[in-house]
């Protein structure tokens, strides 16, 4: 069955919501069950300053979303990129085998939001170069 940590994060999810003007947004879905997880985050000096999630999914998906936000908040972009689905499940004290796939959404959504952040940074840098007229 579910660990106490899973039940706690399901009953009292941390960092629920959406960040207005987020630096990065990531959304992933599970094709099998149709559940969707959206992560928005803000980054300052390469540190994840704030992160919020919205999950339309099962209890395990909500718990893993909540846990992953706690795991990466305050971390560098690189450290957050290295957080795996397995690490999220382990931090929750494990998930029942048939629910392990639910934890895939959590780290994947964070990685997607970070990819979006990195891409936006690149776009801004390119725009800056064009604006300055220098290479
Ligand atoms: Fe869909 Fe858990 S059943 S994420």
Overall description:
By secondary structure, the protein is of the alpha+beta class. It has one domain: Sufe protein. Chain: A, CATH 3.90.1010. About 50% of the residues lie in helices and about 20% in strands. It has five helices and three strands. It has a three-stranded antiparallel sheet with strand order 1-2-3. Helix 2 packs across helix 5. The termini are far apart. The C terminus is likely disordered. FE2/S2 (inorganic) cluster binds next to helix 2 and helix 5.
Strand content: 15-25%
Structural class, from helix and strand content?
A: alpha+beta
Count of runs of 4 or more consecutive helical residues: 5
**Reading side by side through the largest sheet, how are the strands ordered?**
1-2-3
- Distinct bound molecules: FE2/S2 (inorganic) cluster
Reported CATH architecture: Alpha-Beta Complex
Number of domains: 1
Sheet with the most strands? 3 strands, antiparallel
Q: How many individual β-strands?
A: 3
Mean pLDDT metric: 91
């Amino acid at each position: 069955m579910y660990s106490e940590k899973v039940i706690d994060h399901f009953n009292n999810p941390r960092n629920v919501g959406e960040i207005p003007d987020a630096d990065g947004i990531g959304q992933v879905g599970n094709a099998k069950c149709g559940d969707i997880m959206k992560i928005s985050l803000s980054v300052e000096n390469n540190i994840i300053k704030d992160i919020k999630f919205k999950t339309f999914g099962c209890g395990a998906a909500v718990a893993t979303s909540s846990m992953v936000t706690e795991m990466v908040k305050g971390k560098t972009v690189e450290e957050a990129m290295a957080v795996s689905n397995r690490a999220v499940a382990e931090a929750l004290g494990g998930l029942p085998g048939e629910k392990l796939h639910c934890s895939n959404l959590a780290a994947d959504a964070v990685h997607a939001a970070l990819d979006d952040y990195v891409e936006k940074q690149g776009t801004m840098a390119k725009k800056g170069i064009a604006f300055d007229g220098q290479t």
